[in-house]
Design a protein that fits this description.
By secondary structure, the protein is an alpha/beta fold. It contains six helices and eight strands, in the order ααββββαβαβαββα. The strands form two sheets. Strands 1-8-7-4-5-6 form a six-stranded mixed sheet.
Length: about 180
């Protein structure tokens, strides 16, 4: 009876705040390189802008309404080259109305070099956003590359990973699926 009471109490506490229950499940799913993914209380993100390949201004606020995995990277970054195809796979498998992978090349990364980078690694489904002066990266506390953030639908940072990870691992999918809303149907 005590066990049942404890389980019901826990369910009520976490059920009252589904976001915490999801984060707890995501934290529990971290294994291997995913243990580097650190969850935090939701934090507002920078309003600094970055550009799309056509030169248009964008901001992280443009993606509100869905969960977003934001990856800061550079063409010269070897770990970025390793993990980008895995991020592409995540976009293919989980991307849609409730989730998107957003890649932002920070620093000096000319568009032709970015295009060549994506072509060489066989990625064609990720955006090629640029932060040429690293103003967004600096404002977001990006020190070293790659850095990956997870934003909630309100546009707040809820997790951060320093360094590369095995984004195609069972653990990575378990973490993301714990955070994302269950598919309807």
């Amino acid at each position: 009876m005590r066990l049942l009471s404890a389980v019901l109490y826990t369910a009520l506490v976490f059920g009252a705040n589904a976001a915490h229950a999801d984060i707890a499940a995501a934290e529990a799913a971290r294994e291997g390189t995913m243990k580097k993914l650190i969850f935090s209380d939701p934090t507002p993100v920078s309003t600094n802008t970055f550009t799309d390949p056509a030169g248009g201004e964008r901001s992280l606020g443009d993606f509100e309404g869905k969960y977003v995995l934001v990856n800061f990277w550079a063409t010269w970054c070897a770990p970025c080259r390793k993990e980008m195809p895995m991020l592409s796979e995540i976009q293919t498998n989980l991307g849609g109305e409730t989730f998107e992978v957003v890649t932002i090349a920070t620093g000096r990364n000319p568009q032709p070099a970015i295009d060549r980078f994506f072509e060489e690694i066989g990625v064609d489904n990720l955006p090629k956003y640029l932060d040429p002066r690293s103003s967004l990266a600096r404002d977001m506390g990006v020190l070293g590359l790659p850095i990956t953030l997870i934003l909630d639908p309100e546009g707040r940072e809820i997790a951060r990973m320093r360094g590369d990870a095995e984004w195609n691992s069972e653990s990575a999918y378990a973490v993301l699926e714990a955070i994302l809303p269950a598919p309807e149907g």
